[in-house]
Amino acid sequence: MQDQTAIKHIISRFAKEGYSVHPGALKALTSVRNVDEVVDKICSSVTSPVIRYEDVIGIIDSGREESFRILKDISGNSRCEGNIDDFVQVFNSRYSKIRNILKTRISGLPVQHVRRMPDGRKVQIVAMISEIRESSSGHRLIEFEDPTGRITGIAIKGSPAFNQCATLVPDEVVGVSGNLTRDGLFIIENIIFPDIPANGRESVRKDVGIVFTSDIHFGSKEFLQDVWDRFVSWLNMEMKKEKLQELAESVKYVLIAGDIVDGVGVYPGQDQDLLIVDVYEQYEKAAEELERLPDRIKIVLSPGNHDAVRQAEPQPALPSEIKSLFSRNVEFVGNPCLLDISGLKIEMYHGRSLDDLMTMLPSVDYSKPHLAMYELLRKRHLAPVYGGRSLLAPEKEDYLVIEDVPHVLHSGHVHTFGYGVYRGVLTINSGTWQSQTSYQKKMNLNPMPGYVAVYNPAKGIARLKFA
Length: 467
Ligand SMILES: [Fe+2]
Hints:
Layout lengths: L2 H14 L3 E2 L1 H8 L4 H11 L4 E2 L1 H11 L4 E6 L10 H19 L8 H5 L6 E13 L5 E7 L2 E7 L4 H6 L7 E8 L5 E7 L16 E5 L11 H11 L6 H9 E7 L21 H13 L6 E5 L17 H4 L6 E3 L4 E5 L2 E5 L4 H8 L8 H11 L28 E4 L5 E6 L2 E6 L7 H5 L8 E6 L3 E6 L2
Parallel strand pairs: 1-2, 6-8, 9-10, 10-11, 11-12, 14-15, 15-17
Antiparallel strand pairs: 3-13, 4-5, 4-7, 5-6, 7-8, 9-18, 13-14, 16-17, 18-19
Helix pairs in contact: 1-2, 2-4, 3-4
The structure holds fe (ii) ion.
The site of fe (ii) ion has 6 residues, from loops.
């Protein structure tokens, strides 16, 4: 049915029953195939004379077939040759993608033009942060760079811009508005972060349970077998409580955001912490353990920094010699990876960059990892800092820009558990199955093992603890 014809048809169907339709609801209904059936269901469930988006979306989603798609993944698409030109390309790609996100909010001038403009002018630029430092009088000095040149901005101590600049990190791209002074200074007035829209994206209410986990670390002496066994029993509906059984039954997906094994040679002296010293045997153990999960569950596995694949991000899926160890049907994806499960868009990212943010930003720490993930959404980049703990591969395109706003951002890596909603996006850091290692003890890191988040778009989120 053509759109205009479909719209008229839907309006007249509702009018016959005495309802009017809000434009948002109308838009959602035009893409539905069995629209008459859906209209009948809506009419029998609503109580208000105006049909709103919230009245229709749940019914539309419940009629959709359950589906799984990989929307974006580096696996099989890497064009990285590792030379200097490629690093230039990846940063140019980052700049142009984020500039594109900012274009409706800021009309940035090329830095080269700004430098030649007369004093007293208000100017706006879109630029990458190349350096952040403090002046002798305590102001913040920020070096901005775009493809045409560099300019130094100053955030005056005590000004609103001074506080905004406290959340900046090197290599992120932002919009900046400010004033040029007679002395040739660029006084920063406002930082415009690319951020995500205030209400995230349209909701999805498909009734499907998804478990979010990560950092299992099979092969480590500190891997908590008994805690993992309880999780497996729960998924196999062996727990006595009816509610837990129902929740387990609803689970159709288990997403694992990296570090399925402990790996070898990841940090100094790691061999002392290993129960299984051969990395292939670690993956054999992983395959055996995943085999214990019920067949109704699809497992999606992306790598982390302990896995046997290149360390620089984006990381492709595990290599075929490791995939072949898994007899069970596992979907191997890269890191990061954008998935679509029945209309729910999920960005999986292991989370190595969180170490950089925890070190650089005073506002975030390991105890509430989801708050650091909010910063990733605000910066629209999964690994904004180059040259810190996160290694970036010189791909021709920057795969780590958050171009498509997801419904869910899922990470791990920091071994602490936390979730929250930022501007409508559910943000989950899924903890670990490993207790504190000697390395973590030295670093004063306190893991939170045995937690999982179970999210069902139709019912909400549940937190389970198996430890
Ligand atoms: Fe880990």
